[in-house]
Automatic annotation (TrEMBL):
This is Anhydro-N-acetylmuramic acid kinase. It comes from the Bacteria. Pathway: Amino-sugar metabolism; 1,6-anhydro-N-acetylmuramate degradation; Cell wall biogenesis; peptidoglycan recycling. One of its GO terms (biological process) is peptidoglycan turnover. Catalyzes the specific phosphorylation of 1,6-anhydro-N-acetylmuramic acid (anhMurNAc) with the simultaneous cleavage of the 1,6-anhydro ring, generating MurNAc-6-P. Is required for the utilization of anhMurNAc either imported from the medium or derived from its own cell wall murein, and thus plays a role in cell wall recycling. Keywords: ATP-binding, Carbohydrate metabolism, Kinase, Nucleotide-binding, Transferase. InterPro entries: Anhydro_N_Ac-Mur_kinase (IPR005338), ATPase_NBD (IPR043129). It catalyses: 1,6-anhydro-N-acetyl-beta-muramate + ATP + H2O = N-acetyl-D-muramate 6-phosphate + ADP + H(+). One of its GO terms (molecular function) is phosphotransferase activity, alcohol group as acceptor. The gene is anmK. The keyword Aminoacyl-tRNA synthetase does not apply. Its EC number is 2.7.1.170. ATP binds at residues 10-17. Belongs to the anhydro-N-acetylmuramic acid kinase family.
Length: 365
């Protein structure tokens, strides 16, 4: 047995997804999956820590402790579900919470207290997966394309995998060993913030609110004018760029819009930017497989299929045997396994790093 736990809390800031996996015999077997939501106060603090504020050092340290405590709850739940003792698990691979992502300045910060997590769960903890890639001149993101290739890559088939979380990213698996990948732009992050502002809800379930509105072409064009979308890969982004001030600045030219029409347009923005990325890098792909929470947004999936113009079939990773909301946590479990084997976790062709690097830092149990 080669048991690893992966913990991922992404840009949506909602909570932590965990997976317990066995990587024996080069296969990936999922033994358990769990989700632990963050309390409202922690979500609000993590949102506040995305931008400069008073007394940040202390506030970040306290938030990191809270993250470790919720991560430990997720680990306990995974062990319970899997019927596995802590001593049988080789490592917990913990992503932490991205609060700043500035590879162009030479840093990316995933806050967490891995020492506390090791203390609480009694298992080796591997943390800080992105910094080494940034130190090697890379973006530090996205990291999941290497795992998508390991799990979903098939010789002779060109497949595209899109992870639609807060931010969206694609992996183009060319079928000959080559992989392209980058962040396409906002996934759910703007839609979530917009519905929170107007309806006090965390997300637009199934895209129902967006479906009640009408896309505003002039607003869509203004949003698509963002230079990030035209940048060549390697590239990555986050809440550092796509936040509500970004949206409000562009909305100021459209003061009379109905909120549902803005939601429809934001949903379309995610679909169109993804479809353009697929057309540019994944032409001739056999299929586009969706994972991440966006896989549960019916309006977004319909918009995406329409934007692809019938050229690429759209399915969820469920069709490949993996539930869409499990892929990222599994990817980090796999990165923990790679760390223990001292194998590279990054793909330099994706992140732009100078070469393959072992990713992570160990906090022994
Ligand atoms: N039933 C649903 N209908 C519509 N959207 C949904 C649904 N369930 C989840 N989502 C969307 O998915 C988001 C969470 O996705 P996910 O857990 O993949 O994000 P994340 O891991 O935080 O992000 P990232 O990949 O950017 O790190 C929610 O914030 C919401 O916008
Ligand atoms: C800096 C950071 O946390 N980036 C995340 C974020 O969420 C989606 C996208 O932006 C991707 O670049 C990355 O996460 C996934 C797991 C990755 O590294 O592949």
């Amino acid at each position: 047995m080669a048991l690893y736990i992966g913990l991922m809390s992404g840009t949506s800031l909602d909570g932590v997804d965990g997976a317990l996996a066995d990587f024996s015999d080069a296969a990936t077997r999922t033994l358990a999956a769990a989700y632990v939501p963050f309390p409202t106060a922690l979500r609000a603090e993590l949102m506040a820590l995305q931008a400069a504020g008073a007394n940040e050092l202390e506030r970040e340290a306290l938030a990191a402790n809270q993250i470790a405590i919720h991560y430990a709850q997720c680990v306990a739940e995974l062990l319970r579900q899997g019927g596995v003792a802590a001593g049988a698990v080789s490592a917990v691979a913990a992503h932490g919470q991205t609060i700043r992502h500035r590879p162009e300045l030479g840093f990316t910060r995933q806050t967490n207290n891995p020492a506390l997590l090791a203390e609480l769960c009694g298992i080796d903890v591997v943390a800080d997966f992105r910094s080494r890639d940034v130190a090697a001149g890379g973006q530090g993101a996205p990291l999941v394309p290497a795992f998508h290739q390991a799990l979903f890559g098939v010789a002779g088939l060109r497949r595209v995998v899109a992870n639609i979380g807060g931010i969206a990213n694609i992996s183009v698996l060319h079928g000959d060993g080559r992989v392209d990948g980058f962040d396409t732009g906002p996934g759910n992050v703007l839609m979530d913030s917009w519905i929170a502002r107007h309806q006090g809800r965390e997300y637009d379930a199934d895209g129902a609110w967006a479906a009640s509105g009408t896309v505003v072409p002039a607003l869509l064009a203004a949003l698509l004018a963002e230079p990030y979308f035209a940048l060549p890969a390697p590239k990555s982004t986050g809440r550092d760029l796509f936040h509500m001030d970004w949206l409000d600045a562009r909305l100021s030219a459209f003061p009379q819009l109905a909120p549902a029409d803005v939601q429809a347009t934001l949903t379309r923005l995610t679909a169109v930017t993804l479809a353009r990325a697929v057309a540019q890098y994944g032409g001739g792909a056999d299929a586009l497989y969706i994972c991440g929470g966006g896989a549960y947004n019916g309006t977004l999936l319909r918009d995406l299929a329409a934007a692809l113009d019938g050229k690429v079939a759209v399915a969820s990773t469920e069709a490949l045997g993996v539930a869409p909301n499990r892929v990222e946590a599994l990817a980090f479990a796999w990165l923990g396994y790679r760390f223990n084997a001292r194998l590279a976790g990054n793909l330099p062709a994706v992140t732009g790093a100078a070469g393959p690097r072992v990713l992570g830092a160990l906090y022994p149990r």
